[in-house]
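Handoff note, outgoing to incoming analyst
You'll be picking up this chain. Sequence as last confirmed:
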Amino acid sequence: MGASDIENDPNVVDATLLEEAERLLGSAIDLRRDIHEHPELGLELPRTQAAILDSLAGLGLEISTGRDLSSVVAVLDGGQEGPTTLLRGDMDALPMHEDTGLPFASRVDGAMHACGHDAHVAMLAGAARLLAGRSEEVAGRVVFMFQPGEEGHGGAKVMLGEGLLVDHGAVDRAFAIHTSPTIPPGVIATRSGTLLASADAFHLAINGKGGHASMPEDAIDPIPAACEVVLALQAMVTRRVPAFDPAVVTVAHLAAGTTSNVIPETAVLEGTVRAVSGDSRATALDGVRRIAEKIAAAHLCEAVLTWIPGAYPVTVNSPTVAQQALAVARGLLGEERAYSMPTPIMGAEDWSYVLQQVPGAMAFLGTAPTGVERPAPNHSNRMLLEESAMRNGIALHAAMALAPWPARSAAA
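Most recent structure output, in case you need it:
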């Protein structure tokens, strides 16, 4: 059965899933707020892991935890023969201060759930509870993947290395939801093919010679070189990278000096390079290297460029699975509540590692807060999300697991 078959058969998507998700919304919000208030970073998230394990207790799932990270994998055996479906929610926060003023704002200095991962966990746990109550309707198995370390730590890759796709039998299809506070609440958006960009991080040290601020001629000032590099990178992208095969180079951290009357020896720049194809990625990476080295040399400085391990590949949705996700979402929520995105976006995801090995897709769930004219985006210190939209995320996870998806051979 293909996506068009599902879209044309109103009996495939059970409308009562939304009602059940609504009943589970209160507990999902409680879990989300608990995790939001106690964010954890990276691959080791023991408190978040414990909260997930508590939420899954008593559901009759086969549960295992990670060896090299605080992951949780829960497996539901269905009452009928069928494929294995992987559903994922990432768990980690970002290393930043929160300025939302929420009553459940982060209690951890320098850590905030600013990318919706707290909601991802809560929605997936809610879907696990919903599906456990319908286990006899599940054809095959459902693997619930609770993953740490998405924010630059490659947690998905670690879980794959620990046997995620082999320890629980072959996985036939995969699906993930990511919240977006700039999409209207409850709306689903995805696309076939490239959904998200690759991401490479860099650290650039421009080394000069320190000295007195009153005598720059006796020093080699790295700050003008650093400033020129930042501006030249922006021009490089617009002049070397094709507009219809884009890349984005962002310098997000620039640091130099300790006081007003000392020329420092070193200026440091850190940032990311994002692209939606291998060609543009290679062009942008080469451009960063070339500009850094040549501009530094023009200022009599030395450029030391380091690429940070853990770069994420391009996130590519299986066309069949992406179209099926849209069909299921439309059957669940209505035609006007799910749409196909015209272009990729330049964020990156380590879900890309899973999609390199399993036909699958990611979809965005709109969580724009009600009554806010210009919502803060993900990764903002003021990011808010509309918690009621989590109902649709819970229901969509469950609907994707229950729907008669195409076989693996047809879902590439």
